[in-house]
Amino acid sequence: MPRWKPDAGQRLVMAAFELFAEQGYDGTTVSQIATRAGLTRSTFHRHFSDKRDILTAGQATLSRLLAEGIAAALATATPMEAVARGLERASAEMTAFNRELSPLMRAALDANEELREREALKSVGLARAMAEALRARDVPETAAQVAAELGVLAFKTGYGRWIGTTQDEAPGELPALTVAALRELHAAATRLA
Prior knowledge:
With 193 residues, the chain is mainly α.
């Protein structure tokens, strides 16, 4: 087995979700994941502490991208405009790998409560990153939290639309889909009053 192959982290994530779909989360071992990915168990542990960490793979990067986009928004941008810039920044980094992984991830989440709990924590972490970036722009606490929560929901909504169609159906670019979802959610929220 070669000592190094490119994209080891992505290969481990894909292998894990393939195995979770085939034999369940509980029935899958770290050794099986590493073998499926064509890597060693020690390589697995260089990327993840255990198989539960597979679900949050990329969360730190996604949080950073959302925060960078918010920080880069014009100084005159409203909180929602800043969140839209964060969504554009993070969404632009999604690739065919994310689209390919999604059905496997959904199947694993549907079959395992522990993974659903981790997914919920991932959403909390993304909202926290966006709220912190908004507070750094002097957005008041409550407004920052509401805008961040809408941002997380918009990302999930836009992402769901993106993966719900084939590439041949030209579903639109993910950044446009997430920003459109944010606008829809913001409009819906204003009608609640």
